[in-house]
Amino acid sequence: MTVWEAIAVVIAGVFAGGINTVVGSGTLVTFPVLLAVGYPPVVANVSNSLGLVPGSLSGAWGYREELKGQADRVKRLLPASILGGVVGAILLVTLPDEAFTAIVPVLIVIALVLVVVQPWLNRKLSHRRNDNDGGVLLWFGVFAAGIYGGYFGAAQGVLVMGLMGVLVSEHLQRLNALKNVLTAFVNLVAGVMFIFIADVAWLAVLLLAVGSVVGGQIGAKIGRKLPPAVLRGVIVVVGVAAIVQLLVK
């Protein structure tokens, strides 16, 4: 890797860390860059997952005020994310790309629809909720998103936000804070597994980690100031961009 390629990877990490903190889909920035500097697809994917973990943790720390009072949600949903990340990592090294990635655009479309109709659904479903934790449906939805995140991860945050926005009656910024924790652990557990079952480009991991930590803090400062309607709009724009990029690959 040349000096300029290394700089490009760091810059991509900054952008990805910020995008992941605000919405998700940072992988759509870093993964193509790793491919462009010469890494094979699986190595790029594995190294990307590991390299973005510090950025996700940085973003979660930046949203720590919004995480207050959500300890029970974290304890309930975190096992679903971790288990999903394990399954997704195993799928990455055992299944051909076509077997899983063919449904990714469909999943993102569903997530975007959920984000757009969330306010309406919240009003319609509010009288039916006996609690505020999303129930079993959210647990399995987070588990499924964890599988996807462990396998590839692009727009994992969009999927999680779409699910939580509909199933949990809560401010969007607080849900975004929770999303950052869940997706960070999906990347972490998948990354740890990749160390033992796949090839890792450690230089790429280091460069992405440095950039994503900076980006995570920048994303938190920007994202926390966005009103729910604007944040919802950003989610939709990023999600559509993710669909376009995945379809034209």
Automatic annotation (TrEMBL):
Keywords, alphabetical: Cell membrane, Membrane, Transmembrane, Transmembrane helix, Transport
Topological relation to the membrane, as annotated: Multi-pass membrane protein
Residues spanning the membrane: 6-39, 77-93, 99-117, 137-164, 184-208, 229-248
InterPro entries named among the record's database cross-references: TM_pro_TauE-like (IPR002781), TSUP (IPR052017)
Keyword Membrane (UniProt): yes
Keyword Transmembrane recorded: yes
GO cellular component, one term: plasma membrane
Cellular location(s): Cell membrane
Residues making up the signal peptide according to the UniProt record: none
Family, as annotated: Belongs to the 4-toluene sulfonate uptake permease (TSUP) (TC 2.A.102) family.
Protein's name according to its UniProt entry: Probable membrane transporter protein
Species for this entry: Lentzea jiangxiensis
